[in-house]
Amino acid sequence: MKPVDRREQDRLKTRTAILDATEEIMRKEGYAAVTSRRVAERAGLKSQLVHYHFGTMDELFQEAYRRNDKRFFDKYVKAIIAREPLRKIWELSSSHEGMDLVAEYLSAANHRKILRDEIVQTWSRFRALYISGIEKHYEDNNIDAGDFTPGVMAFLIIAIGGTLANERGLGFSEGHEEIIGFMEALLNKPRGNDRINRLS
Amino acid sequence: MKPVDRREQDRLKTRTAILDATEEIMRKEGYAAVTSRRVAERAGLKSQLVHYHFGTMDELFQEAYRRNDKRFFDKYVKAIIAREPLRKIWELSSSHEGMDLVAEYLSAANHRKILRDEIVQTWSRFRALYISGIEKHYEDNNIDAGDFTPGVMAFLIIAIGGTLANERGLGFSEGHEEIIGFMEALLNKPRGNDRINRLS
DNA sequence: GTCTATAGGCCGATAGAC
DNA sequence: GTCTATCGGCCTATAGAC
Q: Is A155 in contact with B156 (Cβ distance < 8 A)?
């Protein structure tokens, strides 16, 4: 048991409530709806407390982003370690949860420089994680990647997963089953055959 | 020569200036920076004129979107008619110009319902255009698409082009050359061979 | 840590003179 | 069509009492 200061506990509770409210608003109404007043209202607090705990709104966004990022990175690392890293990466990247927030933070980054720098860093880290997971998958299963190098596969998964999320956000799903079927086939393709992965 | 009313000319000139300013701000500072005051300032007008000519901001966004959409659709239709539709579609979708605005409108759509409906419509129309262009390419060159059906190719091009644009916007370009090389190979793949396009 | 109060700013939109 | 004037609203952030 770590030493639990009652004051520290309360402090964390309030901070968590604020971050939760921030995330919820961002998810449901978009980042532009994240204002100190709205966040406070949803958390059952006064808006000034948002500033007391997080300073400027920039800092609030930053900390909310970091918390989300940390969660996801940990989740993805576990997926990489699991038995079928490639499939798990695809499942996570094409799933609803999380990917919608990524798009929202990406939009917000246009107007908040700090957030942009933050995103670039984690984006790079995630890309490297994806690639290493895919490399591992290829090695473990003795697959000759052919044209579908780990870098290409990583980009494809990110691009397709992100676009699926964007279009779902619009309420548009034409061709989704088709592209998902394609990815399934790509992920399930026979192993140890250097012919089928080559484009020329 | 069509009848040119001097008043009508002036009216169009002002409207065009406002729409140009709107687009410029959206491109450089993001959609959130598009306010009646800022638009007017950049166009050398008073903010009230924005309302006079376009009514609400929703309507301004809508008309700016439509103008942009019309331009692009015409451009793409010409590309489809051209000699190498598939390659042209890829070039347009992966190019800088235009694709950044798409992302911005997509973000804006989260908070402006009218814009969302508008985007869904044109998104669907563009998807159909892509697919028909790719079908034509396959037929003209006697290509057996295999797993890379027109729907899959269209989605891939949109997803990869859009992601490239997003990442470029962040100042992030790791792996871009690699994925572009992959697409080049995919577009150049030998024709009339039903083997190399199959995943299994 | 949480409250009240408040400064100071930008926003959308309208009314009415010219 | 374009101007001046202006209302009402929501925002970030800070100061100071408790």
A: no
What is the b/e burial string over B132-160, where b = at least 16 CB atoms within 10 angstroms of the residue's CB?
ebbbebbeeeebebbebbbbbbbbbbbbb
What kind of fold does domain B1-55 have according to CATH? Answer: Arc Repressor Mutant, subunit A (1.10.10)
Question: C-alpha angle A83/A89/A93, rounded to 5°?
Answer: 155
Q: Pick from B123, B186, B188: which is nearest to A170 by CB?
A: B123
Q: Tell me the pLDDT tens digit for each residue of B123-181.
A: 999 999 999 999 999 999 888 888 899 999 999 999 999 999 999 989 999 999 999 99
A35 nearest nt, CA–C1': D11
Asked if residue A35 keeps its beta carbon closer than 7 A to nucleic acid strand D, the reply is yes
How far apart (Å, rounded) are the C-alpha atoms in residues A76 and A58? 26
CB environment A7-45: b (16+ within 10 A), e (fewer): eeeeeeebbebbbebbbebbeeebbbebebebbbebbeb
Provide the token pair at A118. 């933050």
pLDDT for residue A196 is more than 50: no
> Tokens at residue B82, please?
């051209």
How many degrees, rounded to 5, is the angle at CA B179 between CA A70 and CA B84? Answer: 140
Single-letter amino acid code for the residue at A92: L
Domain ranges for chain B: 1-55, 56-200
In the predicted model, is pLDDT for residue A144 greater than 90?
Answer: no
Report yes or no: A185 at the B interface, CB cutoff 8 Å: yes
Nearest CA among A120, A114, A103 for reference residue A161: A103
Rounded CA separation B169/B98 (Å):
12
Nearest Cα neighbor of B119 from B131, B100, B105 is B105
Lowest mean pLDDT among A108-112, A124-128, B129-133: A108-112
Distance in angstroms, CA of A131 to C1' of D8?
54
Nearest to A31 by CA among A96, A94, A115, A88: A115
Mean per-residue pLDDT, A13-20: 96
**Whole-prediction pTM:** 0.93
CA dist A43 to A11, A100, B126, Å? 14, 22, 42
- B173 CB contacts (<8 Å, ≥6 apart)? B167
